[in-house]
Amino acid sequence: MSTLKQLASKFLGHDSVFARRTAGGIQPPPFKEHSLRSRIMSTPIPPQLTIPIGPESSGEITRLVDIADQVLKYQKLAVISFSAKGRSDVPVHAPTSGVITSIENSIVADHSQQQQLCINLTVDGHDEALLLKPHTNHSQLSSADLVALIRDAGVIGMGGAGFPTADKLSAYSVLPIEFLIINAAECEPYISADEALLRERANRVVLGAEILKRACAAQRCIIAIEDTKPDAIAAIKQALLNEASNQQCCELVIVPSKYPAGSEKQLIQCATGIEIATGQHPTEHGIIMHNVGTAYAAYEAIIEGKPCISRFTTLCGQALKTPKNFEVLIGTAVGFLFELCGIEANKKQKSIVGGSLMGSELGNDKAATCKTTNCLIAASSNELQAPKAERACIRCGYCADACPSKLLPQQLFAFSKTLDTTQLLEHGILDCIECGACDYVCPSQLPLVSTYKESKKLIETRRQSLEYSDYWQQRFQFRQYRVKKEKDQALSRKLDAPLQSMQAAERAPKNKNNEADFISKEQASRDIAAAVARVKARRNEKNK
Amino acid sequence: MSALQAGAPFQHSGRNITQLMQTLMYALLPGIFASLWFFGFGILINIAIAITFAVLAEAAMLRLRNRDIRSHLGDRSALVTALLFAIAIPPGSPWWLVALGIVFAIVIVKHLYGGLGQNPFNPAMCGYAMLLLAFPLEMTGWHIPFEVITEPQSTDNLGILILTAEREFLSPLSWGGFKQALLLAFPFVASGVIDISEFVDGLAMATPLIEFKMAGKSAILAARESGASLFARESETAWEIINISYLFGGLFLLYKKIISWHIPLAIIATVFVLAALFYAPGSVAIYGTPYLHLFGSATMIGAFFIATDPVSAATTRPGKLVYGIVIGVSIYAIRVWGSYLDSIAFAVLFGNFCAPVLDQYCRPRIFGHGLRSKSRPNEAPVNRE
Q: pLDDT band at B122, cuts 50/70/90?
């Protein structure tokens, strides 16, 4: 591969990167044109914000404000500490000024659909802000400073996983980083937030990428984008030209458009040719991947000194009259955003958070947007409907052709039906990334991914129960051992008691060196020997 | 179950089984038309009988298995089985032969093993193989319509009138050809009118390969030598055209991505390589040219339509390649060294036997598995300023 690369760079005249083939994939209709018709808009400040802090299970939450407190824009509201998981803290900031009315659990528009602890903020409309501390010249800051600033700004992975960016960046302290890949391969249908962001603010994204590159001390930075986004590609090229003075900070790699090109390991393979083994972390190969939105957030955090209080979210679906991309304040209700896009409530059949292939249905439009809400779909009754008729699997193998992990989905499905966990593991069910490509192509319209999710849960519960039973078996065996040992000890103590007291007596003279003790010791040992002899005699008699 | 329904993905390609089966049937059309052109209405009558009995058997089995008849019949899988079966059966076969075979295929091979998607063997080929074993005589000839003109011409020495049948080719697509095909299929209709036994026995026309095996002179080569055009409507070149038609149908399926290239390519390449290896001009005739082996018999329909039946074939990509090679070797071996005249059905069934094992052992490497553990060189930490 490296020779090929050298050859390519010889022909192209510079150290270029090129896209490699990845396995599987599908090409669903993207449905992005509607939301890309207009420019990114900022939302008006909603009267009420429900700012998610995080599910209580995820980490320890430290509240910095209380009910009835007046807060200012950018003020730190709470900190989630992941120290138990070996991660750093993520602060949450106020998107605007107002009064905190309550702190309670409510639904958040993200994939997990869990209840999260949220701060309810009644907006006062003045939008009074704290003074920001911009660092216009980021090259004066060290990597550690950059990471600390990004951490303090509460930046997390904007692509959907929501992993604290600072933690990902600080991997450089353990392993040297060769590649920083900026993921602009927004492959899932309906989502266009990254494309819109690049189209309009490529300069800032490139600057953000440069900041991230310096923060993780990466040698090279690659921006990976799909070939179906010509406007965004042109914008990046322009931005890279503008930055040309700064040597070559980033390289652009155009990857073929297919779903799921933007999946982490697939994109790494596509952009660098490196296949990350199961269970390995990309940093072990010197690779870190960040989303475009994260790069933009890093730009804001450093250059503008602004904490992460908003994100870019696509609003689309046939029930919306004017689908578009919004810069959304964290905590805005989904329903409020739908209203802004002119929702036809009677047309809306369901709301989906995320894209059409990996998103999840949102039960309630009052749910608040969070830092990972990349797309909200108000689907009408003639789009994104569950297939009508499920058929038997005819083993056509289209799913295997579509699978980016080169699994055999039809076999996994059969083993899931028979709950054969051994074969499931053997066939690599844990390598399933749940992208939904197999579902998409299945002519029998089987619910494959949902079945695999169930199977994974089953495997997990079986593993746990096995662990529990092992644990309790150990405990039980230990108890038996202990009981037996105690019994034995009791017996031997009974037998050894004379000896022990003799030993004790031996030790005694060192302290008290008088004759009486000596005598008593000899006397005692004689007595003891006699007693032992008696016991033995009695036993022998008994045995006879 | 509701939890399963609600999950992602929400988008679907819109492809369904009905569509697949429909496309498969369209792809069979050129081959069917070619057969019709050369062999007359026999194939259509076969198809009609097979479809009728397939639908009846399918409906009855669905009823017995408490399945919704309308929606399951609607997937057209029974129709495809019927079509493939009808094409394999010699035109001019009696109706009961076709009916028996297709009912066996649908009831026993398909539904008794659990219906669509569960049958380990290709139903059409199982039906065909059963008939070949039970009724070898009826299964070995391809009938070409003849006009039979009987004239009392002479008496022999003993004064017994001899009926000498003067045989004359007649257009398979003419009314006479149609009538004859009907009579062949439904002999009871004709029993009172004509003594049919005579031309049933006499007018069978073997495939070129069979001729090769039996006689040693290739009809195709003979036709070529005598300057016959490929497109002249002569039965000598019929098999070529029919195979080419099925090849086009198969390419259409590949283009539509209904089938993958693995199985057909493996079969065709294997047959080609074996035929080329063993090709011995002048010696025993059956070691014919690769061309004869590919286009002189049913290789194309077998490779593109029968072996690719997804239910009974291997399903992994490497497995499909091995499966194709197994079938290719079997086709050639049975043809050349076996005692059966043609071999697609047995070869495919043998492939079906191997499929589960192939699926188990010919698995693609899972992404991220089985990599050499490449430990990164222990570089000095990068200067962090």
A: very high
What residues contact residue A396 under an 8 Å CB cut-off, 6+ apart?
A: A410, A443, B20, B310, B315
SS3 A393: coil
What's the N-to-C CA distance of chain A in angstroms? 86
At A416-468, the pLDDT tens digits run 999 888 999 989 999 999 999 999 999 988 889 989 999 999 999 999 999 99
ipTM over 0.90: no
DSSP-assigned states of every residue in B112-179: GGTSTTT-SS-HHHHHHHHHHHH-TTTTS-EE--EEEEEEEEEE-TT--EEEEEEEEE--TTSHHHHH
Please state the pTM of the whole predicted model.
Answer: 0.81
Given CB atoms, is A191 within the 8 Å cutoff of chain B? no
- Residues in A 19-78 with any Cβ partner in B closer than 8 A: 23, 26, 28
Predicted local distance difference test score (pLDDT) of residue A85? 66
Under 8 Å between Cβ of B184 and B92: yes
What token pair was written down for B314? 């291997």
Query: Would the pLDDT of B371 be above 90?
Result: no
Closest chain A residue to B362 measured between Cα atoms? A408
Residue B373 pLDDT level (bands cut at 50, 70, 90): low
SS3 assignment for A152-214? HCCCECCCCCCCEHHHHHHHHHCCCCCEEEEEECCCCCCCCHHHHHHHHHHHHHHHHHHHHHH
Cis-peptide into A323, omega within 30 deg:
no
Token pair for residue B131?
Answer: 């008939």
Alpha carbon of A171: minimum distance to chain B alpha carbons (Å): 12
Q: Which CATH architecture has domain A11-316?
A: 3-Layer(aba) Sandwich (3.40)
Radius of gyration of chain A (CA): 33
Supply the Cα-derived Rg of chain B in whole angstroms.
Answer: 25
Residue A100 scores a pLDDT above 50: yes
CA distance A311 to A160: 12
Reply yes or no: is the peptide bond before residue B187 cis, omega within 30 of 0. no
Q: Say yes or no: A95 contacts chain B, CB-CB below 8 A.
A: no
- Please answer whether residues A289 and A268 qualify as being in contact, where contact means their C-beta atoms are separated by less than 8 angstroms: yes
CB-based contacts of B311, cutoff 8 Å, min separation 6: A394, A395, B116, B117, B118, B119, B122
Q: For residue B171, name the pLDDT band (cuts at 50, 70, 90).
A: low
Cβ-defined contacts of A352-355 (< 8 Å, 24+): A352/A317, A352/A376, A352/A377, A352/A379, A352/A384, A352/B10, A353/A109, A353/A110, A353/A111, A353/A377, A354/A111, A354/A160, A354/A188, A354/A191, A354/B8, A355/A188, A355/A189, A355/A190, A355/A191
What does the block give as tokens for B312?
A: 């009974």
CA distance B340 to B365: 39
- Rounded to the nearest angstrom, the minimum Cα separation between A474 and chain B is 33
Q: By C-alpha distance, which of A438, A18, A32 is closest to A228? A: A32
Which chain A residues are Cβ-neighbours of B260 within 8 angstroms?
397, 401
Position B215 confidence tier, pLDDT thresholds 50, 70, 90: very low
Residue from the list A177, A277, A443 with its beta carbon closest to the beta carbon of B17: A443
CA distance A46 to chain B (A): 30
**How many CB atoms sit inside 10 A of residue A370's CB?**
24
Residue A242 has pLDDT above 70, yes or no: yes
Cα–Cα distance measured from residue B323 to residue B342, given in angstroms and rounded to the nearest whole number: 19
